Every structure is written in C-alpha cells, then in structure tokens.
C-alpha cells in the first residue's frame, strides 16, 4: 500500500512482495486469503555487516588518495594505478583486520565482564560453595559451549553487550546487544520451523539465555517476553522427551530450567507444564540428592493448586463449592507439611546455623526518623545455595497460606450460603496463627543479603519471585514493613543491575499473577486503590467478573 513501510508489513504480504494495509488484527490481504496475519505492523531489525562498511569506507579513502597523487606528480598512468591500488588495498585490509581484532577483543572482554558481574564471588570464596546452584551451573555450561553454536553465541553476546552498555553508558553497545538479540530470535525461529535441531542442546540453551536477557536487561514488556521464552523452553523439553537428558549439558539445562518453569507456572496458573511430574523425564536418585531438585519436586503441584483456587470462584453450586474447597484445603496442607519437613532437612544439613541477623547497611544509609527505616538488621546466611533454598521455602509457605486464606475469605464474602467455616474448617493450629507474619518479615529482612554488591546479578535474580509474593501480602494487610521495598529498589538501581524494570512489569500483573485480590469491590482493595499507595499496583489486576 502507498505510504506503508515494507518493513512493517505482515509475514504473508512480505513473502508475496505485496503491500500490506496494516489493518489490525488481520490485514485485508490475509482476510481475503484466509491466512494467519503474523507480525502485522511490527518493524524489522536491520543488520549491518560492519566488515563491509569498513572495506567500503577505506576503499573510498583509497580512491581519493589516488586522485590526489596523480595530480601531484606525473609518472605513467599504468604505474600510478598499480602502486596506489596495491597500497590502498593493503591499507584497507590492514585496517579491517585491526577493526575486527579490536571488536573481537571487545566482545571477549564483554563476556568476561558479564560472567564476573553475574557471579563475582564464584571462584572459591565462602559464600558460593563448590556445589553451586542450578541457575549458575547451566549458565556457566552455556558460556563454555557458546563458541560451537552461532545462535547460542548471539544470545551470550546480547547479554554481554547489554551489560557493557549498562556499565559504560555506551549506546552503540546497547544497539549491538539488540542486534545480537534479534539475530538470536531469528535463528531460534528458523530452527524450530525447520525442526532439524529440536534435539540440539544448544537450541534449548539459547532460549533459556533469551529469558535471562529479559530479566537482567530486557526489551519492551519484559514479563511477557520472559514468559514466552520460559514457555518456549518448556515446550522444547516436552518435544525432545528423554532425548534432552542423553548428555550432561542437556541434563544441566533441564535442572536449571525447573525453578523458572515453576515460577512461570505459578504466575500463569499452569499455562506451561505444571512441573516435574508432567515431563517425560523423571529425576534420577542421583538428581534427588540435590536439594534444589528436591524442593522443585515438592513445589511442582503449586501451579495446579493456584488454578484450583481460582476455579472455586467460578462455581455456583454450594455442594460443588464445598467439595472443591475440601480438595484445595487438603492439597494446601499436604504441601505445607512437606515444606516444613524440608525446612527441617535444611536445618540438619548444616552443622552450624543456617542464618542469623547482622546490622543493616541499608538502614544506616537512611535518616533516623525515616519511615522507610523499619529494620535495623538483616538476615544473612551460611552460604548462597542454602540462602536460595531457605528463601524459596519461606516464600512458598507464605504463598500456600495466603492462597488458602484468600479463598476462604472470598467464600465468606460472596458465597455465604456455603457456610464454609462450619462445613470445611480451615484447620489452622493455634501455633500457626502468626506464622504468615513471621514468614513475610523473614523474607523481607533477607532481601538485603541478595542485593549486596558481592552477590552480583545471580543474587538479585533470586528476589523476583519472593518479592512478588511478600509485596502482595504486606500491601494487602497494610503493614509498615512494606516501606522497605523502595529501599531495595534504590539499591538495585545503585548497583545498575536492571532487574527493577522486570519486577515493575511483574507487579503490574499483565502476564504473571502471584497473589490474587479478593475482588475489585472488596473494601480493603478499594481503600488501597484510592489511597494512591505505590504498592497498590500489586493488587490492581482486574478480577474475574462476579456471577
């Protein structure tokens, strides 16, 4: 169509070299032909071959030099042409080699700088024990394999150059990062369409790295893009079946993907696979000795539990409401009991204390009378892997307690005829009444440990899931401890990590929904929304219309 950039036409029109009218959601040509309209109005990235640019620039420079030389002296035309052409050719070749070597050195340094920023204390220092954690194991393995696969190398370079841009403020590095990202996405798309690389471990690693890019650096709508990559990795694992675990690299990738898949499953109520139990691969006895795998196996039913809690709100029949609530209560109590036993296992796994409190450096940076100075100490841990396990255990216990309580509260408000407290008592022991508050405070006081400079990007990455849960809880109950979150956000910005943008997108609830509000007309929700509190966005997700 006249005036419509061809770069924004849909895939079908571009293949046919026809103009696209960009009508949303389906253009006129696709509507007429009955085709699926893909990437309508989406601009394409333009990739520039820097080596050709350099060669063309130096060639032009050589031509100008030739012209000036011929005017300055009068040797024979043949000799002038021969000498100047050979000279400019050698100069162009040399400059091109220098440029390529400089760029190669820059890219190599960028990768090293990214890994140093990701796990700055990974080399034998006490906080990072030798067994490490799955999130750093798979990434380290992917970095080692990057040289053998162009797509994987592009994903690594996207992360590295984006980090370099953040540190140096170099806009060209950011452009390079987005170019590598775009090239990587195209490679993945071609590989999936062709279907000949589904069993290649490098393809799975590439998709997982794209998800990591969204957490730490990101494009637009980071939570949605992150979810798409996590879901894509899960589908690849399903398609590959047991083949995914024929190699050590594939096995490390699978184990490293479990936690992210679980978080995505919880936030989307099982939009991806629900967990370990629904994959063709079952953890071996050797795998189950790993505490990370044990915990993910315990939590694998959480997405379906969250889905069931949402489903109860759509049931009208009283008998069915009671039946579904009984099932939810049973499943919640089962997983909470197992989590408490796992917590005891953690305690026994260490000869010394797992965690203790130390003076908070973040609190010291605040004015004595600041409303944000709600803590004077923070929780520190014996080592980083234990910290991640304990952090996730506390968060999951809080999520299960909150889910069960919110479901009962909703039924009290909107299904009073079910008389749910008399028919199906929630069965919370007296000694557990203050457990949720204790869990929430422990989670918040632990966050400073993960955002210390020496913890790097891998530390900051651990707080996304817990912060989403505890932020909703403390905001719902309007507790003073919620004022600690701006302090954590400022620390993230001081460290120039970039994860705060991902957290903001997550809190908006467009893609992930951790703790669901009671309803838009529920009094506490209305009060919070009208108060203008910055944390009200956690509960600002539109609930399902009441029936």
From TrEMBL:
Report the protein name in the record. Answer: Zn(2)-C6 fungal-type domain-containing protein
| Xref: Gene3D superfamilies | Zn(2)-C6 fungal-type DNA-binding domain
Q: Where is the Zn(2)-C6 fungal-type domain?
A: 9-39
Alphabetically sorted, this entry's keywords are: DNA-binding, Nucleus, Transcription, Transcription regulation
Q: Where is the composition biased (Low complexity)?
A: 60-90
Origin species, per record, is: Cyphellophora europaea (strain CBS 101466) (Phialophora europaea)
Disordered: annotated span: 53-90
From which domain of life does this come? Answer: Eukaryota
**PROSITE patterns noted in UniProt:** ZN2_CY6_FUNGAL_1, ZN2_CY6_FUNGAL_2
Which terms in the Gene Ontology molecular function aspect does this entry carry?
A: DNA binding; DNA-binding transcription factor activity, RNA polymerase II-specific; zinc ion binding
